[in-house]
Protein: UDP-glucose 6-dehydrogenase
Organism: candidate division WWE3 bacterium GW2011_GWC2_44_9
Amino acid sequence: MKICVIGTGYVGLVGAAVFADMGNTVVGVDKDKAKIAKVTSGVMPIYELGLDEIVLRNVKNGNLRFTTSTPEGVSQSDVIFICVGTPQDDTGAADLTAVMAVAKEVGQNLNGYKIVVTKSTVPVGTNERVEQVIKENAQAGMDFDVVSNPEFLREGAAIEDMRNTNRTVVGTKSARALNMMRELYKGFNAPFVECDLRSAEMIKYASNALLATKISFINEIGQLCERAGANVQVVAEGVGLDKRIGRAFLNATGVGYGGSCFPKDVAALYKTSTDQAYDFKLLRSVMEVNELQKFNFMKKITKAMGENLSGCTIGVLGLAFKNDTDDIRESGAIKMIRMIRGYGAELRVYDPAAMENTKKVFGHDQIYYANDMYDAIKDVDALCIFTEWGNFKLLDLTKTKQLMKGNLIFDARNLLDQKAVESSGFVYIAVGKRTNGYTEDGDIVSTAILKNGR
Ligand SMILES: NC(=O)c1ccc[n+]([C@@H]2O[C@H](COP(=O)([O-])OP(=O)(O)OC[C@H]3O[C@@H](n4cnc5c(N)ncnc54)[C@H](O)[C@@H]3O)[C@@H](O)[C@H]2O)c1
């Protein structure tokens, strides 16, 4: 099939590569000239394991190419995927400016029957607006159909997720478009959910909102565990073995859920509910718990180290919102760094992929960008772990003890082995469980490593 993917970000670039790798002829379009120049020269504009290999192979065999010209991409294709961003606007709603701009351009450049497929996450009713905008901008009599085909990939496992998706959701009122989508996805070997446009749009939001709810739920259980003397990791194992519940998304975290999807999608669904005059109380709590989680973790730091952190240096491992990505959009780590900086501390930070993106946010004020994880902990009073990168689990505790000035470790991901950390002489404070960083009454111990008393 001849496919045009508009928006070559995390979803569009991976989608273009995977569709090309299945033997389709794909053109990736992005208005960002620097991005297109980069990918055309063989350098990936995003960090996604294995992506470069697929892109390069398909560029070489002629299945994949890139352009900044939407007219060129649209006119030469039969199926057009809209993969542009839908960030949160000031009201909490999804900002559809990019989607509607693309719809207009698609309409202006229709030159025969095409299917216009929205992969971007868009609120219920958006595809009907897309259809309207295309119609208004197309020449009279031009035939096209719209399809809602939400994407469920996770950054860091995007290629695997796209190829082995749990389900393909296709919403459309057109039998012709449905058949073409079946043909396109026949190699995916996943359940094919065919439905109306609005249900397809809602499936995406309901999925993300439910996953976010699981995270906020286990974070609340974690709060209770700390107070009641239980261990949230053990509880999650026990609960997760119930097949009706499942183990996924039951990791308590001090930084809450983040990223370019969950926060904005939960907010957008909540906005949809208020627009429909429905008060979605559960979602409101999910968002509130998520914000509180970060403040609660900050409270652990200040309880242990004091309210005035000027003169202290804190090492940070993990900046991306999750492991295996360079994406720091709505990253809990970034929010934590902002708070820690606000309390006056200097920071030494490290992330295997997200350093450049973080420099763009913070610059160098109060922050040293370390060369590796051990460089990040040199002479620091305390260490914070904010992202669950596999390498951080391998931290050599003896070396860490020698390199650090203080002995405090705040593990917002429960990544390290509690016994090993404690027996290496650290005061360990994690999430949803009592450690040697707690008094018998369940309070955080106040340490004596403060600025003047060091
Ligand atoms: N990132 C994810 O993990 C993920 C997963 C599932 C769904 N989604 C959804 O997919 C959509 C895209 O997300 P993303 O993370 O890939 O976004 P992104 O910001 O990484 O990429 C969007 C791209 O669209 C381009 N763009 C914007 N307007 C354009 C225009 N008018 N013409 C051409 N290109 C244009 C931008 O330059 C950018 O490169 C969002 O709606 C998101 O919610 C994202």
